């Protein structure tokens, strides 16, 4: 919003006021909507109105919403908060706080509007900016007559660089005097473009990519992969929550946390370092596709940008995408890092994304930049004994689903079997895979082979399970409890063990 428009609001409100005139909000739709067929445009308008009502309801605002063919009028008590809420609804091109002025003639309109702006133009150069919508006279007529009425109170007319502006939209029987106007996100209303699942790490790229497709009318849920020692799940969830609160007003957005730490371990143990990152990406695509199909979503969304890192060459992207069974959307494919960071600032995710640590690389040297598809498939086939298709489906089925807007990491209650200390006399079981670090505790029982080994454990003992982050140990402890064992999971994973003295 320009400084001139800000001054319009301040001086007009401090001046004569608006006795007898109704104030409200004028919402204009994104320009692309006007190019659609009548049937599609009606569908988009219905979706926009529904989303406006949901956004207002979530903000606790009572309002009357009146749709028209090319805009929506909203009347509410708290106009400032209403305008802020509507400025985050996709499909909204602009939001203006207005005064509604009914009139019988051009002379009547000028007589009613001119007193509102006398103090605003006093001692300043000014310009009248009028838009016409089926009015019985032209916008030039309005500018000429209203300008003439205000000229004696001003320092003159300056159409190029005025110190003050008088802005209004004139319809057939009423005009809307614009006090303050701000841009909305534009695009298409949420829900008009289908649904997609965004692969989400929380860094700068993934929230911007999700926002870009949301702006095209796509409803988005997220999948966050827990990669064990490489994962930053809590930080990614914090970014996801910020995205949901800012850009899904009135709508639900969920995050699905899927444990792929065993995949990371299997890659480290069994795969040439050159290919590990590519195979990890293929596993992410495969798991994401399984989840998207289960949820009935049409596509995956990623924050990949062509050539940004070694796994994002054209060949590597093509090889990775072969593992997906649904389309993969890459809205940032032609963007550079600076453009992405600037967009992150614009949409409000930059500061929380800046706190997210980059996922660690599981390659110990150069990464293949032009992968051979046959070599990749051969390497992938060697993982099937640990993380085959059935394993992926199980880990997707065991995912953690989080309603982002109500998620509060400080208020989450852990199950009784999740503890922060070593129970006295408990056998400490390290369930990490061999490639995840030196063994700790009393027993090493890799998670990938734990299910078939549980019955060999002494049922008279208590067990404390430890993994990289606490996610796998929680799942296995729950399984053991169901089988009649006394088992616990150490909250926070192996890094917590050194300070977890016996209770």
UniProtKB/TrEMBL annotation:
Coiled coil: none annotated. Residues 80-181 form the THUMP domain. Pathway: Cofactor biosynthesis; thiamine diphosphate biosynthesis. It comes from the Bacteria. It is found in: Cytoplasm. Catalyzes the ATP-dependent transfer of a sulfur to tRNA to produce 4-thiouridine in position 8 of tRNAs, which functions as a near-UV photosensor. Also catalyzes the transfer of sulfur to the sulfur carrier protein ThiS, forming ThiS-thiocarboxylate. This is a step in the synthesis of thiazole, in the thiamine biosynthesis pathway. The sulfur is donated as persulfide by IscS. This is tRNA sulfurtransferase. It comes from Rubrobacter xylanophilus. The lineage of its organism: Bacteria, Bacillati, Actinomycetota, Rubrobacteria, Rubrobacterales.
């Amino acid at each position: 919003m320009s400084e001139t428009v800000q001054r319009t609001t301040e001086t007009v409100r401090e001046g004569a006021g608006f006795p007898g005139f109704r104030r409200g909000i004028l919402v204009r739709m994104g320009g692309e909507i006007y190019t659609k067929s009548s049937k599609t445009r009606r569908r988009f308008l219905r979706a926009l109105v529904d989303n406006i009502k949901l956004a207002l309801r979530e903000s606790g605002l009572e309002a009357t919403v009146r749709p028209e063919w090319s805009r929506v009028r909203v009347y509410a008590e708290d106009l400032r908060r209403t305008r802020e809420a509507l400025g985050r609804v996709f499909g909204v091109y602009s939001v203006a706080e207005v005064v509604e002025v009914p009139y019988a003639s051009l002379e009547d309109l000028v007589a009613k509007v001119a007193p509102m702006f006398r103090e605003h133009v006093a001692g300043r150069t000014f310009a009248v900016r009028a838009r016409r919508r089926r009015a019985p006279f032209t916008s030039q007529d309005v500018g000429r007559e209203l300008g003439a009425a205000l000229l004696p109170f001003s320092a003159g007319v300056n159409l190029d660089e005025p110190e003050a502006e008088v802005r209004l939209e004139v319809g057939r029987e009423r005009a809307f005097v614009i006090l303050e106007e701000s841009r909305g996100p534009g695009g298409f209303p949420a829900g008009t473009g289908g649904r997609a699942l965004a692969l989400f790490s929380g860094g700068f790229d993934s929230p911007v990519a999700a926002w870009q497709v949301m702006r095209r009318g796509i409803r988005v849920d997220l999948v966050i992969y827990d990669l064990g020692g490489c994962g930053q799940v809590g930080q990614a969830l914090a970014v996801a929550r910020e995205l949901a609160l800012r850009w899904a007003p009135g709508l639900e957005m969920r995050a699905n946390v899927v444990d792929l730490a065993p995949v990371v371990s299997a890659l480290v143990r069994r795969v040439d370092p050159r290919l590990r990152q590519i195979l990890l990406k293929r596993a992410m695509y495969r798991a994401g596709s399984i989840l998207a199909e289960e949820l009935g979503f049409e596509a995956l969304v990623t924050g990949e940008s062509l050539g940004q890192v070694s796994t994002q060459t054209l060949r590597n992207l093509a090889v990775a995408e072969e593992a997906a069974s649904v389309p993969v959307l890459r809205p940032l494919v032609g963007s550079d890092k600076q453009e992405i960071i600037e967009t992150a600032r614009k949409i409000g995710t930059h500061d929380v994304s800046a706190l997210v640590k980059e996922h660690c690389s599981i390659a110990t040297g150069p990464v293949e930049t032009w992968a051979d598809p046959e070599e990749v498939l051969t390497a992938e086939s060697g993982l099937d004994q640990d993380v085959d298709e059935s394993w992926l489906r199980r880990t997707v089925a065991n995912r953690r689903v989080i309603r982002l807007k109500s998620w509060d990491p400080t208020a989450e209650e852990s199950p009784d079997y999740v503890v922060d200390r070593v129970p006295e006399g408990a056998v400490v079981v390290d369930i990490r895979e061999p490639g995840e670090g030196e063994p700790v505790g009393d027993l090493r029982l890799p998670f990938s082979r734990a299910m078939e080994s549980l019955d060999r454990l002494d049922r008279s003992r208590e067990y404390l399970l430890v993994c990289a982050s606490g996610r796998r140990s929680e799942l296995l402890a729950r399984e053991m409890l169901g089988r009649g064992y006394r088992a616990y999971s150490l909250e926070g994973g192996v890094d917590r063990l050194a300070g977890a003295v016996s209770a």
